[in-house]
Amino acid sequence: MHHHERFQNNYDFLRLFAAFSIIFYHSFSLLHQAGIEPLMQLTKGRLNFSFIGLSIFFCISGFLIAKSTARSPGVVNYLWKRFLRIQPLLIVTCILTVFICVFFSNLSAKDYFSNRNTWSYFRNVMPVFGLQFTLPGVFVHNIAEHGVNGSLWTLILEERLYILMSIIFLLRKKYKSYIVLFIAVVNFFYLANRFFFDGEMVRYFTSLPFFYALLFLNSAALYFLKINFSNSLFFFVSFSLVAFITAVLLPSLNSLYFFSIPVLVNSVAQIKGITNHAGKYGDFTYGIYVFSFPVQQMFIAAGIVKENPFALFLYTIVIVFPMAVLSWNLVEKKCLKLKKLVGIHQK
Predict the structure, then answer these.
(1) DSSP string, 123-167
(2) d(Cα 202, Cα 214) in Å, to the nearest integer?
(3) For the chain, how big is the Rg over CA atoms in Å?
(4) How far apart are CA 183 and CA 174, in angstroms?
(5) What gap in Å lies between CA 128 and CA 71, rounded to an integer?
(6) Minimal CA–CA distance to 131: which of 162, 94, 101, 168?
(7) Rounded to an integer, what is the distance from CA 142 to the centroid of its chain?
(8) Is the pTM higher than 0.90?
(9) Nearest one of 106, 99, 129 to 294, comparing CA atoms
């Protein structure tokens, strides 16, 4: 996003809200108390804060990645920018995770570092090929989850969507209408699979990854269609909000999520106000997201938090937010300055 545009929308604010929402949900689920998470109770199990956070993330990503494909000089530069956004901090995260988690393993340091699964954890620097969620002997006695960083699963989907968008990128100049048609066809097959085949025609269409992938694609379609939310902001916000609430109240109509959430997120992003400056000092969202899960697991493993999810949430924020500020200034911000080094002259 260009600097002059950054403080004219709420994308930074929405990403921060999404990251904190996911931490809040994990504070309950990692203590085996997901059922009493406030939004779960309010909606009788139909929604939780992780759903809200991830939906926001994938909608924002779809819209902004579509914009990136349109503005990048070539597919090589586009992929290079995606690499710089994800991999540098992920490499740092994997290094910190492997060397700090030795203190939370039930193995000796010698056995831990001589175990091949310790070093194979570094496959996580390229999530597109799949992930390893555990380390030898680490968090094996935790209450609800033995995984070291369960949040990373979304990066598998995210990076595969980047690759899909790079293919769409090659078509963007002459065939923009075909891109939107492709996304429309995907929606059609989802609806046909659900309402005419009871989800049995293509099982993947009923999976959680597909749900978020379709939010991403539908949000990208909004960009390719050049929807001007600002001109009819009240209409877009109110109409999509009503559709979203309808989907919550009537589960038989929850297919409305695929259309209401992308419109709601991207229209709310255009509301002008003080929240437009949420990213004034940097984009700390990615650091918050990748650091929070292992930090929460460490608090639980160390016995610092045993049953209070609100305490786990607050303790996590206190530790993770400064880490995210440091990672932005020492790693992410510096790496993003390199985005013009590769493929900038590609035609």
Answers:
(1) GGGSGGG------TTBTTT-SS---S-GGGHHHHHHHHHHHHHHH
(2) 14
(3) 21
(4) 17
(5) 24
(6) 94
(7) 25
(8) yes
(9) 99
Domain ranges (residues) in the chain: 3-336
Exposed e or buried b for every residue in 16-50, given b needs 16+ CB within 10 A? bbbbbbbbbbbbbbbbebbeebebbeeeeeebbbb
Per residue in 193-247, pLDDT (tens digit) is 888 888 778 888 889 999 999 999 999 999 989 888 988 999 999 999 999 999 9
Of 51, 256, 290, 45, give the one whose Cα is nearest residue 149: 290
Which sign does the torsion angle of CA 159, 326, 321, 148 carry? Answer: positive
Which helix (H) or strand (E) element contains residue 77? Answer: helix 75-100
> Rounded to 5 degrees, what are φ and ψ at 138?
-90, 130
Of the given ranges (11-25, 64-78, 173-187, 204-218), which has the lowest mean pLDDT? Answer: 173-187
* Percentages (nearest 5) of helix, strand, coil residues in the chain: 75, 0, 25
Matching residue, tokens 């020492």: 330
Beta bridge partners of 187: none
Q: Residue 70 has which token pair?
A: 């349109």
CA distance 335 to 6: 19
> pLDDT tens-digit profile of 165-201?
888 777 765 667 788 888 999 999 998 988 888 877 8
Q: Cβ atoms within 10 A of the Cβ of 228, count? A: 10
- Bridge partner residues of 105 (DSSP): 138
Reduced to 3 states, what is the DSSP secondary structure of residue 105? strand
Residue % of the chain over a pLDDT of 70: 96
In single-letter form, the type of residue at position 327 comes to: S
Largest CA distance in the chain: 63
Picking from 273, 184, 270, 209, the residue whose alpha carbon sits closest to that of residue 234 is 270
Of 4, 89, 6, nearest in space to 279 by CA: 6
What is the reported pLDDT for 159? 95
Task: Specify the amino acid at residue 340.
Answer: K
Q: Which two tokens stand for residue 132?
A: 């390893």
